[in-house]
Amino acid sequence: MSKSQNAISPTRAENYPEWYQQVIQAADMAENSPVRGCMVIKPWGYALWENMQRELDQMFKATGHVNAYFPLLIPLSFLEKEAEHVQGFAKECAVVTHHRLEAKPEGGLQPAGLLEEPLIIRPTSETIIGMQYSKWVQSYRDLPLLINQWANVVRWEMRTRMFLRTSEFLWQEGHTAHADDAEAQEETFRMLDIYETFARDYMAMPVIKGEKTPDERFPGAQNTYTIEAMMQDKKALQAGTSHFLAQHFSKSFNISFTNKNGDIEYAWTTSWGVSTRLIGGLIMTHSDDDGLVLPPKLAPTQIILLPIYRSEDDKAQVLNYCNELASALRSQQLCGQSLRVSIDTRDINTGEKGWQAVKKGIPLRVEIGPRDIQNNQLVVMRRDNSPRQKTLLPRDEFINGAVDLLVDIQQQLLTKASAFQQANFHTLQTQAEFHDFFSQKDDEGPAPGFGICYSVHNEAIQQLAKSLKVTARCMPLDRQQISGRCIFTGEPTTQQIIYAKSY
Amino acid sequence: MSKSQNAISPTRAENYPEWYQQVIQAADMAENSPVRGCMVIKPWGYALWENMQRELDQMFKATGHVNAYFPLLIPLSFLEKEAEHVQGFAKECAVVTHHRLEAKPEGGLQPAGLLEEPLIIRPTSETIIGMQYSKWVQSYRDLPLLINQWANVVRWEMRTRMFLRTSEFLWQEGHTAHADDAEAQEETFRMLDIYETFARDYMAMPVIKGEKTPDERFPGAQNTYTIEAMMQDKKALQAGTSHFLAQHFSKSFNISFTNKNGDIEYAWTTSWGVSTRLIGGLIMTHSDDDGLVLPPKLAPTQIILLPIYRSEDDKAQVLNYCNELASALRSQQLCGQSLRVSIDTRDINTGEKGWQAVKKGIPLRVEIGPRDIQNNQLVVMRRDNSPRQKTLLPRDEFINGAVDLLVDIQQQLLTKASAFQQANFHTLQTQAEFHDFFSQKDDEGPAPGFGICYSVHNEAIQQLAKSLKVTARCMPLDRQQISGRCIFTGEPTTQQIIYAKSY
Predict the structure, then answer these.
(1) Shared-domain flag, residues B313 and B389
(2) Which phi and psi (to 5°) does residue A432 adopt?
């Protein structure tokens, strides 16, 4: 298939939101389901999630966490125990009210078996887990309790977008309980650091660690910390959060323990989570007008072999060669895992196979025909280069260098994304600058980027930001020591806030 | 802690159902939650499930299946499309009717935002997946479709028992679509074989493969095949099922395709699943009156090191020795995984640590004190022996033989369970024998075991079985060729049916 234009239409410049949907469709990662607000994660998207899960799970376990599983359904009364929490989630709860179906007189079925107390499908599990922890935690010896759960959650959303905002999503939620304040705070930051490391070292997605302003906190948290990423349209994506819950939930759920002195104290708790939203972030960080671009460490297939043949004799020879090559490659490791290599043996033309591999974001494509076998060389194409850029490599050089090539692609993706983030990160010195920077209209192209300024947090500033359709994304952790003056009020402050348009 | 009695009270002989609950509690695997019919799977139980998942997942992938994820919530109208299916599940559906909460005038919250169409929490996903497949399958080239999903499902249960029957449970459900009858049947048996292999080779649980009688079929299936295991109380446990759905669901959901001749045909589908119920089966196959017994291949910890010391000097020396020993053991592999070794460093006495390890079912316990270090030997205890049976082994002999020891324990568990199953498997020649065999009352001790006989399947025989509180478990696949006469009606038949009391 000869192509003179890009594989994805519209391009990013033409229509970014539609480009995003088309990238997902072209890569066959996911699709909307007939169930309102819920998506189907198709095998290619799910395999990516499995790779993300495996790496995150290892990082959680390496820091002493264990997995467990708590009920999907939460009694309404549990949710009500923490006042801010229930307020935060009441408007988006799927409510189970009946436990069976019965025949309607006019035909069809209707709900029956009314429950005494309605059950909520978990939007998050602080309440049900808090209830269990109150039983499990009795003595300081029971602490810390370091538990993570991989689960689905439901938050009823009116406007949904695949991976970024869906009524049901998959995530992990860590819930820990500690004997003191300092240890719980340390845990909150430890997990934020793990999220940053994962985003940077596996997703090749640079993020900014910061504290959320009070109005953006998790309902019931004392402090919420976030990793914020910049998408290619310069909008911010909240990619993961870690919450210091202080004693809010332990007091609501009576998670108390006898300390070393024999006194009763409330535990200090944290919670932290990342979700399938990360996949949306990954797509929007790296993909281009030819489709998905996957960082090699997470790609379900890292190298795809594209056999070329015309005759049946050629076919046998080429496939045989491909199988041997695949074995040789699979004996090499990246991140402690055998290289993930596939051979596209389908009876469709090689050009079409190549374009499908491009659209699926596979890091390395290798074409192999009878002449290449004769010359003992391979045609290698990197996904981070132009789709038509080909390199001829001797077979053994490619095998021995495959891991290095993948590591280089991984590094290049991070370098490019970091440069983009830095280029679109602006320091704003005055209120006028703030206004000018953010007053570009949405339909004049991409968002203006991230603007950081000294800023206190008050209602008037929030209103101003709202009028420009931006929000306070976070107060970066690496900027909390230097003092200046709020560009809105002139008050002295050490607080710097990043504002941006966001998902 | 010196003990002259068993660690679990009551014993199996005293009260089997209560023994089961106590084993789970003593091993800290799971507990009932305050949410009706739902359990909490605690870290020790969940780690076992993770090991089971990993091995099953590998077996699924090795046979060409990929994972995906479909919505939790199913519109009522989808469920209604397959008549038998909806009938089978209508009485146990959790129904979502509202999508938010609002304040009640008298305080508190109530469901609000009535949905136009009620949503069912999936009890199984044939309908929602069928709906998607009808979009994905267009041509014979799109087949076979070989997809598995790891998920939670909800079936409202009135009488629940941990792991065996809970309102919410975790499982995998495979859903495949094929171009013809034969290929779909082959898939149905392939997955049944995988379940048998997993049960036997990983769980050390022998199972009987068979076809379900018509009244025990999955709602909507053409044939249901099962693996049936015998618990230590001689009751049967349906441990996994594989369904040949023929064209029932493809016709209801219009999963059709253009075949090679250009004609439109309906696809042939299958579904197959195992759940956290397997954990209940594992517990009841191997555990004894001292608690859980885990097959080494699945044990979250395979070897636990129990350091013994009195002084701080001893402590440092012993812990150092344990760390080195653990490293040496972890460099060995079982089933392609590093040995899972932990060191119990808690400041409680060694006897208590030992009993906890017994109750958790850890295959090998190793005591290490200063004198053992001096003599370069270890005190090794196998979970499948009496808790007090100790073997002195030179350090290097133990390290080099650890994998063999674990393999031997795995084998012994299977041998013992197989012998038990065979000893309690009876051929019944006449209706009188059938009656005598099954007419023992429940409170006279354990169930009588499995009885197999030539039997046709009719209402009268079902009623007779019901009056004896037994059910047709399956028609074993390895007995379908030999002909005889039904012991109830005298009719000639090749059909043999296993009857048993069951979970």
Answers:
(1) yes
(2) -65, -45
Q: Which residues 6+ apart lie within 8 Å of A267 measured at CB? A: A133, A137, A143, A177, A178, A179, A247, A250, A255, A256, A257
Mean pLDDT value across residues B207-219? 95
How many domains in chain B?
Answer: 3
Which residues in chain A are contacts of B132 at CB distance < 8 A?
Answer: 33, 40
What is the C-alpha separation between B207 and B230, in angstroms, rounded? 7
For residue B118, give the nearest of A170, A114, A76, A42 by alpha carbon.
A114
Mutation for A interface: B25, B101, B140, B260, most A CBs within 10 A:
B101
What is the per-residue DSSP string for B453-474?
A: EE----HHHHHHHHHTT-EEEE
User: Cβ(A457)–Cβ(A472) under 8 Å?
Assistant: yes
Most A-contacting residue of B57, B73, B140, B337 (CB-CB within 10 A), to test interface:
B73
Going by C-alpha positions, the residue among B236, B293, B288, B278 that lies closest to residue B446 is B236
CB contact under 8 A, B33 and A132: yes
CA distance B464 to chain A (A): 30
Look-up: residue for tokens 């997942």?
A: B57
B179, B250 Cβ separation under 8 angstroms: no
Q: Which pLDDT does position B1 carry in this prediction? A: 40
Dihedral Cα A179, A185, A281, A279, nearest 10 deg? -10
Which residue of chain A is at minimal alpha-carbon distance from B49?
A: A68
Is A61 a member of any domain?
Answer: yes
Mean pLDDT across chain B? 95
pLDDT beneath 50: ranges in chain A: 1-3
Report how far residue B307's alpha carbon sits from residue A221's, in angstroms, rounded to the nearest whole number.
Answer: 41
**A34 and A160 inside one domain:** yes
Return the number of other C-beta atoms located less than 10 Å from residue A212's C-beta: 21
Q: Which whole number is the average pLDDT over B427-434?
A: 96
* Residue A121 exposure: Cα atoms within 13 Å on the Cβ side: 31
Q: How far is the C-alpha of B57 from the C-alpha of A367, rounded, in Å?
A: 31
Would you call B111 and A95 a contact, using CB atoms and an 8 Å cutoff? yes
Question: Are A365 and A477 within one domain?
Answer: no
> Do A233 and A105 share a structural domain?
yes
Return the closest-CA partner of residue A120 out of A163, A89, A142.
A89
